[in-house]
Design a protein that fits this description.
The chain has 108 residues and is an alpha+beta fold. It has a single domain, classed as Alpha-Beta Plaits. The chain has 3 helices and 6 strands; from the N terminus they run βαββαβββα. A hairpin with a 2-residue loop joins strand 4 and strand 5. The model has no long low-confidence stretch (mean pLDDT 89).
């Protein structure tokens, strides 16, 4: 299995190849991509690198907070993006759950 790591506060000039070179000494890189603006197709300052499970923690601990092109990197495990529809569904289910609790549940 593999994990996808989030890299934040990247320089806007970075490429996926640069990100691969950064991680390669620490782990095998399965894939790397940079977040691009839809209109300008320029970097948005973040990216994702897919690495094997066994080395993900080592990459995070080695690179989080380090300087890269004069910027402090943010590196952590990526979380899946939730669509607006799914967020609304989860909020609805939470409100239904709250409504089903007894009135004195929230009193202290």
């Amino acid at each position: 299995m593999s994990k996808i790591l989030y890299f934040g506060n990247l320089p806007f000039t970075i490429t996926a190849a640069d990100l691969t070179k950064l991680v390669k000494p620490l782990s095998n890189v399965i894939s790397a991509r940079i977040g691009l603006d839809n209109k300008t197709h320029k970097s948005r300052g973040f990216g994702f690198v897919e690495v094997p499970d066994e080395t993900a923690a080592a990459v995070i601990s080695a690179l989080h907070g380090t300087k890269f092109h004069g910027r402090d990197l943010t590196v952590n495990e990526s979380t899946p993006r939730i669509s607006e529809r799914e967020k609304a569904r989860q909020e609805y289910l939470q409100s239904k759950k709250r409504d089903s609790l007894p009135d004195d549940y929230y009193e202290e």
